[in-house]
Amino acid sequence: MTEHCRHARYVWNLAVEQQQHWQPGRRAPGYNDQCAQLTAARAEHDWLAAGSQTVQQQALRDFAQAMRNFFGGTHRRPTWRAAGRHEGFRQVGVKPHHIERLNRRFGRVWIPKVGWVRFRLSRPVPEGVRSYRVTCDRAGRWHIAFAHIPDPIAGPREGSVLGIDRGVAVSAALSTGELLQAPGLSRGEARRLKVLQQRLARAARGSNRRAQTKLAIAKLRARETDRRKDWVEKVTTDIARRFDTIRIEALDVHAMTRSARGTVEQPGQRVAQKRGLNRGISRSGWGLLAARLQHKAYGRVEQVPAA
């Protein structure tokens, strides 16, 4: 599966490189042209031919869809995928007999060139699933996600309205008077994270000590992220069930968390303070909270100008 991730990332980065060298008046290669180039590359390189052709072609399909989203104005331009950060591949056209449930806790899935792989059932796999994505996070944990759009959560249908104000000291303040705070690391875990970061700064690049320290930091970060995602899922489900209309500030979180470093000619001011604010916003889960509300209370969420 690690080889699948490497091949998918390699093909994706080649497609990105072709788009970056595109100039007005010259036609950039499309999906069909890139598939022909992939066939020639597989015939030339044995290490690429040893991988799954469907995984590599799916990376090209995903890139083509990403470019369509970019030109449509709904997403940003696709960029490079880095080793250790973007580890994953997607498989489409999954047949029903390629996914089996073993017992109440475990199931298994058929992966090309790998065979049967067992996974833990965090929830039942829906019927009619045709694709899945396998990823590996920085903590070394493998995940599998099956593509399925769940039904939105029904509201109480009583005309109730809720306003949500997002902040840093309080992650979400509801108009009912409830103050919700996203969980993070405990005091002891935060102390250990600081010690690990100091150890990482002293470790030599390429050493085993540095790799072990990076893995320990990644596990702490993953624990914090898991707690925040779990909190967002529970809070958004509860809000979608209790209220009919949900109003939330229309904030550009990506722009608000942009760095204040500036350039060499025009360096930024109060960069450290802005960096602390950016981290506080990220730990509060502003973007994920709004996105999950849009998914669960579809058509019942209104974006209100912040002013």
Q: Please describe the biggest sheet, giving its number of strands, its sense, and whether it closes into a barrel.
A: 5 strands, mixed
The sequence of SSEs as H and E is: HHHHEEEEEEEEEHHEHHHE
In DSSP terms, counting alpha (H) and pi (I) runs of 4 or more, how many helices?
9
Across the major sheet, the strand order is 9-8-7-10-11
Summing up helix and strand content along with how strands pair, one would put the structural category as: alpha+beta
Structure summary, number of beta strands: 11
Q: Roughly what percent helix? A: 40-55%
Averaged pLDDT? 93
Strand portion? 15-25%
Shape: globular
| Poorly predicted tracts of residues | none
User: Measured on Cα atoms, how large is the radius of gyration?
Assistant: 23 Å
What would the keywords be for this entry?
single chain, 307 residues, alpha+beta, 2 domains, five-stranded mixed β-sheet, three-stranded antiparallel β-sheet, 11 strands, globular
Annotate the secondary structure layout.
Elements: H1 2-20, H2 31-44, H3 46-49, H4 53-72, E1 87-92, E2 99-101, E3 106-111, E4 115-120, E5 131-136, E6 142-146, E7 161-166, E8 172-174, E9 179-180, H5 187-202, H6 208-242, E10 245-249, H7 253-256, H8 271-284, H9 286-296, E11 301-304
Parallel strand pairs: 7-10, 10-11
Antiparallel strand pairs: 1-5, 2-3, 3-4, 5-6, 7-8, 8-9
